[in-house]
């Protein structure tokens, strides 16, 4: 594979001491048994029964014999207990608690997400294309085979606008480029106002194709890659990133997109549903999701992983540095080991040829696993991007492109309910009168 992709400026390398001082990017928190007992309000014996049954995961505090307990598990148990007693716990329910909306799109299982009943890992094993999975999420009716999409509608001329301002957009973050596309389409009043309109899928396909074309702004040409009729999304990405469009590269990109496509009610997806519930058009809903997606606890955290990779792969000598503090984008509140990351990284390991310093990347995983830290999908996408020789920012870009398919499904489903999402707040301040 030609590794001629022009890399963006390498992030400043960090020392081992700096690794522990990163901004908060992991949404996996651990608390002591005393804190857990205070949250749950149960006897110590009951608490340890929860732990022994696997309802609360624990890990050893580094350098000590003390055990810490996963906060999300404790909060989930507290929410269920409160539900049985009738005590309102809205604040807890909104953070990895009980479901707050009904959906027929996906569910999270121990083996990863299921899309309309189809395990995402199985779809990857079957080598299903991203287009196949996107239509499955939107309609629930899978095709019999992988089929590429026709060229976007001629009226969606965002590509020409991006081309005219390519020098400006090439300097912005990948998510800002995508946000511009979504907001521009909404501003042109090309969004969907009728969820039953026959052109919902056409507009959804066009939006994703235009997003894929924006990969060219990240690539060495720094030029929008106009999608062509019959070209797969993965192929359009590879062309924009200027890597060889081998069968293995296309399959790896498809797997990355499929595993990123949907994950139930994540924070950006919730924002999309709130926006859709107000009657906003499809493109505005996706733009709302993009704003939330950029946060450091979402794909914004991939920046920290890229810095880590840059440090490891540019460090002189033969050995990778040892990291003792928590690694960015390692761990997930809903999984002991993120199965999406496991599958994607295994495919990346099998990819040939590997970059010369790839062994250092795999050493990071070995060292992290030895300390009980496992990568989530964000870290896996950064590692995969490095193996493919993609420019910086590609991990966040690929995840967002893939997740757009899920956002479109949720926006459509929410519109069909005909109700507006409006959670209530509980005032906790002092009464003055």
Notes on the structure:
With 433 residues, this protein is mostly helical. It folds into 2 domains: 1-29 and 120-424, Citrate Synthase, domain 1 (Orthogonal Bundle); 32-93, no CATH class. Helices cover 51% and strands 4% of the residues. The chain contains 21 helices and 6 strands. The chain has helices at 16-19, 33-40, 44-52, 71-85, 90-93, 120-125, 130-139, 158-164, 166-169, 174-187, 200-213, 215-218, 233-241, 247-260, 267-277, 282-293, 302-314, 339-350, 358-370, 377-388, 394-417, and strands at 30-31, 58-60, 67-70, 106-109, 112-115, 118-119. The protein has a 3-stranded antiparallel beta sheet with strand order 1-3-2. Strands 4-5-6 form a 3-stranded antiparallel beta sheet. Strand 2 (58-60) and strand 3 form a beta hairpin. It starts with 15 loop residues before the first helix and ends in a 16-residue tail after the last helix. Mean pLDDT is 82; it is low at 1-23, 87-91 and 191-198.
């Amino acid at each position: 594979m030609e590794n001629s992709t022009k890399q963006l400026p390498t992030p400043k390398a960090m020392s081992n001491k700096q690794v522990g001082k990163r901004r908060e990017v992991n949404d996996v928190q651990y608390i002591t048994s005393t804190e857990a007992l205070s949250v749950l309000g149960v006897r110590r014996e009951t608490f340890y029964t929860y732990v022994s049954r696997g309802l609360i995961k624990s890990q050893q505090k580094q350098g000590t014999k003390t055990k810490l307990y996963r906060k999300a598990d404790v909060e989930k148990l507290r929410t269920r207990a409160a539900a049985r007693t009738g005590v309102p716990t809205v604040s807890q329910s909104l953070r990895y608690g009980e479901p707050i909306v009904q959906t027929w799109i996906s569910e999270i299982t121990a083996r990863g997400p299921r899309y309309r009943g189809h395990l995402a890992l199985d779809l990857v094993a079957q080598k299903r294309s991203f287009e196949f999975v996107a239509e499955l999420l939107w309609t629930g009716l899978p095709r019999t085979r992988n089929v590429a999409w026709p060229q976007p509608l001629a009226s969606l001329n965002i590509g020409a606008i991006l081309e005219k301002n390519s020098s400006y957009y090439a300097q912005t973050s990948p998510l800002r480029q995508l946000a511009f596309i979504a907001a521009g389409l909404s501003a042109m009043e090309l969004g969907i106002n009728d969820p039953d309109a026959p052109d919902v899928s056409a507009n959804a396909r066009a939006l994703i194709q235009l997003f894929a074309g924006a990969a060219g702004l990240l690539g060495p040409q720094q030029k929008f890659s106009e999608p062509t009729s019959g070209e797969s999304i993965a192929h359009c990405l590879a062309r924009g990133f200027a890597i060889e469009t081998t069968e293995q590269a296309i399959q790896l990109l498809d797997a990355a997109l499929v595993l990123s496509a949907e994950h139930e009610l994540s924070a950006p997806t919730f924002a999309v549903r709130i926006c859709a519930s107000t009657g906003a058009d499809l493109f505005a809903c996706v733009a709302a999701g993009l704003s939330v997606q950029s946060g450091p606890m979402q794909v914004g955290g991939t920046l920290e992983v890229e810095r880590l990779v840059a440090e490891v792969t540019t460090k002189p000598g033969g050995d990778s540095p040892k990291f003792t503090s928590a690694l960015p984008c390692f761990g997930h509140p809903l999984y002991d080991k993120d199965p999406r990351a496991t599958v994607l990284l295994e495919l990346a390991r099998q990819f040939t040829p590997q970059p010369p310093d790839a062994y250092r990347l795999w050493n990071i995983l070995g060292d992290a696993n030895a300390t009980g830290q496992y990568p989530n999908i964000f870290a896996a996408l950064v590692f995969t991007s490095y193996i493919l020789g993609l420019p910086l920012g590609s991990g966040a870009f690929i995840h967002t492109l893939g997740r757009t398919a899920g956002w479109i499904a949720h926006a459509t489903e929410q519109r069909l309910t005909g109700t507006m999402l409006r959670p209530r707040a509980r005032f906790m301040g002092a009464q003055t009168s």
